[in-house]
Specification:
- The protein has 253 residues and is mostly helical.
- It is built from 10 helices and no strands.
- Helix 4 (93-104) crosses helix 5, helix 5 (119-155) packs antiparallel against helix 7 (172-187) and helix 7 packs antiparallel against helix 10 (220-252).
- The chain is globular, with a radius of gyration of 24 Å.
């Protein structure tokens, strides 16, 4: 009994050490994949960026003007609309994925387009997810500015539409953080893009779905390499936004 216990105590640290060595080895291989620009890794990264940036452009084109329009106008049902937008910021991604899947499936109203399990379907799903967030956040930012500059803009003869456009332009540096918030959610999305994209190798496999798949397969080097790149992209973009905002504040006050 004593000998068995002693052997158990001796083997336990050895097993832990082996696990640490395995993780370190996987991390080293991941860095090698990134440093050598592994073709499979590069293809996944560029596809991810193309899909997420496309979704962000759609979100900006719809969400920012919508938020600004709600901020400068007063109409029946406005409060309910604001509450709805704020609630949609927490929209479950799998629900969006299911809804888009039903719309684009063969039996759905948009089935004849034949875009299910394509990058286009993934862009649509991500755009639906991030547009309410961008609209809700921009509405709050523009409304605060509208309360401050309302009389000045009215004295210049600006219409409500013109005031919304002017405020969006004046607040462009502050809105960068909102755009990045949308990109962050789009780039980190898994559920919706898995449902409508299918995680097809070389076609719809993006960083998040590849990380989930490779981890389940035990291919840690590729999963870690993609994780490092995804984290680096988010950090670089946020650092860039911070620098831009600080520079704008120093220049324009």
């Amino acid at each position: 009994m004593q000998i068995g216990s002693l052997l158990h105590i001796i083997e336990k640290p050895t097993g832990a050490k082996d696990s640490l060595n395995s993780v370190a080895e996987a991390a080293g291989q991941a860095f090698a994949l990134v440093a050598n620009a592994d073709p499979k890794l590069v293809q996944i990264v560029f596809l991810s960026l193309r899909i997420s940036l496309s979704a962000v452009l759609i979100g900006c084109a719809i969400g920012l003007p919508l938020g600004a329009a709600i901020a400068v106008n007063r109409f029946p049902g406005r409060r309910a609309l604001v509450v709805t937008l704020n609630g949609l910021m927490g929209l479950p991604s799998v629900v969006v994925g299911l809804a888009v899947y039903l719309l684009l499936s063969r039996a759905g109203p948009l089935g004849p387009m034949g875009i299910l399990f394509t990058p286009t379907a993934m862009v649509i799903a991500q755009a639906i997810l991030i547009t309410p967030t961008m609209a809700a956040l921009s509405r709050q930012v523009v409304e605060d500015a509208w309360d401050e500059y309302r009389e000045q803009l009215r004295s210049l003869g600006e219409s409500k539409l013109g005031a919304a456009a002017t405020l969006l332009w004046d607040l462009r540096f502050s809105l960068v953080t909102i755009v990045l918030a949308g990109f962050g959610r789009a780039a980190s999305e898994v559920g919706a893009v898995m449902i409508v994209g299918g995680n097809i190798d070389g076609v719809t496999r993006v960083m998040t779905t590849a990380i989930a798949l490779e981890t389940s397969k035990g291919d840690l080097p590729l999963a870690l390499g993609l994780g490092f790149i995804l984290l680096a992209i988010v950090l670089v973009l946020n650092a860039g936004a911070f620098v831009v905002k600080e520079a704008a504040q120093r220049r324009y006050g």
